[in-house]
Amino acid sequence: MNRRVFARGARGLAVFGPHCEEQPRKHRLAPRRLRPHNAAAMRLATLLGPDLKQTLADDPGELLEALEEFHAEDIAEVVSDLEDDVALSLMLLLPEELAAEVLERVDEDVRTRILKMLGTNAAAEVLAEMSPDDRVDALQELPDDVAEKILDRLEETEPEVAEEVRELRAYDTSSAGGIMTTDYVSLPPESKVWQTIDHVREKSQEGRAETISYIYVLAFGGKLVGVVSLRDLILAAPSKSLADIMTENIVRAPPTADQEEVARLIAKYDLSAVPIVDENGEMLGVVTVDDVVDVVIEEATEDAQRMGAVVPITDSYFETGYWEFVRKRAGWLVVLFLGGLLTATVMRAFEHEMATMIELVVFIPLIISSGGNTGSQSSSLVIRALAVGEVVPGDWWRVFYREVSIGMTLGVLLGAVGFARAYFFGGDGSIAIALVVSSSVVVIVLMGTVVGSLLPLGIKRIGLDPAVSSTPFIASLVDVLGLLVYFSLATTIMRAFR
Q: In this structure, are residues 255 and 207 in contact, taking their beta carbons and an 8 Å threshold?
């Protein structure tokens, strides 16, 4: 077979799922970061070893034949491990369609460097072969001047692709419009089943489909009026029209919907794709399940970092710079440190009580940890419930009632343990100390559960990410309030026993 650099292949307009034997390009590929699982399960870089650069120079044809035996994901791993000049030579060797598949799978920084080195013309050619959503992502990662040059080149060679890119770039990257693809199969309602099957087969064989799960039925003006699953299409009589078998009750989302909301829709209704429709009912694109998986991982990573009092980091651990780590961790640490100074202020305000009753100091770590731990538990549970849609800010009263009940039960349980500890090992006035410790633990645990559960709801209500009410922040807040409660109760109870 004759090949040329970036030999032009077919591109697609259809999106369908993994239910057809001849699957589209994107779904014939394994999920990102999936290791090969057959006899050639070793990484391609290990197989080719240090001879890769030499083979690339001496016998590129033989190397290309070897590369075609491997999954695009494995080639992407090799490209990520190579020096930039070698990676560029390897990418130039690949046919255009395979090069696009590889670029869809490498890390963002690697993809950006390669596209810059390819130059405007070659970059435009390979981007034209990528799926629309990945193409837009790649361009948005490039500097504006470089991206505009590539877009100008696409205007000359692939005007429809360029127009599509500009439309998709108008949407926020974290919205449904920002992650949707315009590659989907659509036909008018009067289309016959046999015609539709031929159409789906044609699009799939051309390699232009992302998923073949659904056929969208569009009326005049591109308005979405129905959807037909591939299963229903195959089981229907060939002479029937799509209007006869389509489902009119369609789960859909607007282009401005948050990507997390689209992920919840796909999970709730067990879908392979969700159509994105504007306010006039015109279909704009679809968000497929593979993009939703990326969204879920991205959002879970951000939430985990925020809950650990770290500003979200986009790059991997080892690719993140030293000063970026310092900058994104120092902010919250300074805030928490200032919160810790409030603890010292509270202790100074009650220094007389601490001086006269040294036994009070012994139990300060117990008081602080009990409130902080219960507050962190409640906040983690509520933040997770908000993330998956189990709780909304309007449920605050139900959450409050539930957490008060749970907090009281936990407080009594821990208070009983604290009473026993203080009574048997509390020294002089052990009954008084035991009452101070046990009553303080009950109040502080109750307070921790309430603050930890309601604070994320309040933050969500004002439109912020509830994960910013990080576990360390809530723990510090409850620590300060806990010491106030502890010393206040100690003053009252100890006076009563004098």
A: no
